[in-house]
Design brief:
Radius of gyration: 30 Å
Number of helices: 19
CATH superfamily of the largest domain: DD-peptidase/beta-lactamase superfamily
Number of strands: 22
Strand content: 15-25%
Helix content: 25-40%
Distance between the termini: 74 Å
CATH class of the largest domain: Alpha Beta
Largest sheet: 10 strands, antiparallel
């Protein structure tokens, strides 16, 4: 029996540690993306004077008693402005040190506490909630096939509870005893657990109970010691009484053209959903830490939770319905896709593929934090006016940063394996070699297109383009996929490769796009088409097109292309330059490819397609 107990001890306590110890890291195989402009911070700073104007306009329009607005770049609060008063009775001014209640932005702190407990082995995200909150053990579910509530459901607002704004906003001070009584009485469901997103303050209040149970400490104490203090957020607290009176922003609502004070609720059982107080400097530290989770890299860990866990918080786990809308009927169509991570909202739009943030609203307070992980830029805003929104200000501020030209994402870096493959494939294109081809090819490459067929095609390219030289750089899509240009005696080759999931990574796909510069007739046709985009002229069209050409189809395309604005002829994208070419048109509202075909004898237009290039996230 003693032997069996010893074995069980080894399995339960040592196996996880052995598993962790066996983790291997292939350092350097996936280089982290990098910002390539060494002057990006200075260039972004050109938007700061506009921030002053935007914030002033915001204060005038919102009529907020007081507010603070800050901008974070690469982990540093580079610009911050406070305006208005923190208390109407004595007109005490707001400063960056003024402490506001940030309402639902607290939810991400609760989520971070849950992930820390998960990482420390104190809970699992897939644990049933009843394991930590026994009052829910007999909760009646809406259907016989409903999933049991899990921690993950609560983190992602997919527990099926009804949306509870503004009811939840008034429950901050409820006692634990009252909450336990409510839980025993049951919770009505609006949907079955795990099937839909529905915002639940109640769910995050329950997460606070789980944090306390799993840690063995009061929720507020655990968050203070394991998140706030490690991040240096020493002005942040769940207890208003611990903040010096001269630093507190009292909450107000505007009603009947007057400011009326909002009663401030104490921290209670619902504090995990919206009870945290903080100031601009502390909130900037928090946002900077979450932003620092990107990109994945080999640096030592420096935060209260692992970088991988911080990234996990910022991934879309529960989607919301997508939308496409126009601000006005004549404005461009805008795409909006959003989801919920863990205590954070995740979205993408026509400009940015990954936006993270969360707002907060309580009687007396409104706040917002938002950042672009791949761009290293974040915004924070806090106000002491009920449900004050910052979306318009943030959108205008991002636009101001965008106009500097320096708001660019990190650039993917090629892996050593990709660079090696580039060199080998370039050598093979210049001069075919069977042994080299067999060495670099994944087993599918010559099954998809036989080696002798590839060799014959590439020799034909050499006859057309002359001697081609290996590219001096590569544009990677990721560590194992990318493209480069090989300049030739005549024109160039755009080469694209993908490496296979083999060790070592071998080449599974090679795509070569041969390009010859447009000749004089093709260039003339492209220039004429651009002129027609700005002003249709029937006589010009008649002189341009071959007999039988579908002029009405061309007119429809030209009319539709007006949404792209003014265009000019750019570089060729493909084609032989005489009979057919795809030529980039650089337009005000995005690029278009003009695919042009000419009669080889008369040089008249036989086909035209105007195609939006996929490098643009959304078309006008």
């Amino acid at each position: 029996m003693r032997f069996v107990q010893t074995c069980l001890f080894l399995v339960v306590f040592l196996f996880p540690q052995l598993t962790h110890a066996q983790k291997r890291v292939a350092t350097g195989t996936v280089p982290p993306p990098q910002f390539t402009d060494p002057q990006r911070k200075q260039k972004l700073a050109a938007a700061f004077p506009e921030f002053e104007k935007l914030f002033k306009t915001f204060m005038e329009r919102s009529q907020a008693p007081g507010a603070v607005f800050g901008v974070i770049v690469d982990g540093e609060l580079v610009w911050v402005k406070a305006a208005g008063v923190r208390e109407k009775t004595n007109d005490a001014v707001v400063t960056p040190e003024t402490v506001f209640r940030i309402a639902s932005m607290t939810k991400s702190f609760t989520a971070m506490a849950v992930l820390k407990l998960r990482d420390d082995g104190k809970l699992s995200l897939d644990d049933p909630v009843a394991k930590y909150v026994p009052e829910l053990a007999n909760l009646p579910y809406p259907t016989s096939d409903s999933q049991a509530l899990t921690v993950r459901h609560l983190l992602t607002h997919s527990e099926g509870f009804p949306e509870d704004n503004p009811w939840g906003d008034r429950q901050l001070a409820q006692s634990d005893a009252t909450m336990r009584e409510w839980l025993r009485a049951g919770i009505p469901f609006s949907t079955s657990p795990g099937t839909a997103f529905e915002y639940s303050n109640y769910g995050f209040a329950i997460l606070g109970q789980i944090v306390a149970k799993a840690s063995g400490r009061p929720y507020a104490d655990y968050v203070r010691d394991n998140i706030l203090r490690p991040l240096g957020m020493n002005a942040s607290t769940f207890e208003m009484s611990s903040v010096p009176r001269e630093q507190i922003a009292l909450g107000y609502r505007r009603e009947d053209n007057k400011y009326k004070p909002e009663p401030i609720l104490a921290h209670g059982s619902f504090g995990a959903m919206g009870g945290l107080w903080t100031n601009a400097h502390d909130l900037a530290r928090y946002v900077a830490f979450l932003m620092s989770a990107f990109p994945p890299r080999d640096e030592p860990e420096r935060g209260p939770i692992k970088r991988s866990s911080a990234r996990e918080m910022q991934q879309p786990w529960r989607p919301s319905p997508a939308s496409a809308f126009r601000p006005t009927v004549d404005a461009p169509l805008q795409l909006g896709v959003s989801a919920y991570g863990y205590g954070l909202g995740i979205s993408q739009d026509c400009r940015f593929g990954h936006v993270v943030g969360h707002g907060g609203g309580l009687p007396g307070y409104g706040s917002l934090m938002r950042w672009l992980p791949e761009y290293g830029v974040g915004l924070i805003g806090m106000s002491n006016q009920t449900y004050q929104g910052f979306n318009g200000l943030f959108n205008d501020a991002i636009s101001a940063l965008h106009r500097t030209g320096a708001l660019q994402p990190r650039v993917v870096q090629p892996s050593p394996a990709l660079l090696t493959a580039q060199s080998d494939v370039s050598q093979l294109i210049v001069k075919w070699d069977d042994s080299l081809a067999n060495r670099i090819a994944a087993d599918n490459l010559f099954l998809d297109v036989a080696a002798e067929v590839r060799s014959s095609r590439w020799k034909a390219l050499a006859e057309q383009h002359g001697v081609c030289r290996p590219g001096s750089s590569i544009k990677p899509e990721n560590a194992l996929r990318g493209e480069w240009r090989m300049m030739c005696d005549r024109g160039w080759l755009d080469v694209y490769i993908t490496l296979a999931p083999t060790m070592p990574p071998k080449v599974q796909l090679i795509s070569i796009n041969p390009v010859m510069p447009p000749d004089a007739e093709m260039t003339k046709a492209a220039e004429t088409i651009v002129k027609l985009l700005s002003s249709w002229d029937a006589k010009t069209v008649e002189a341009l097109v071959a007999p039988g050409f579908d002029v009405e189809r061309m007119r429809r395309q030209v009319t539709a292309a007006a949404a792209w604005g003014s265009c000019k002829v750019g570089e060729p994208l493909s084609g032989n330059g005489t009979r057919n070419s795809a030529i980039r048109l650089t337009c005000d509202n995005g690029p278009i490819a003009a695919r042009i075909a000419l009669d080889p004898n008369t040089h008249k237009l036989t086909n035209l397609d105007l195609v939006p290039l996929r490098e643009q996230r959304c078309v006008p």
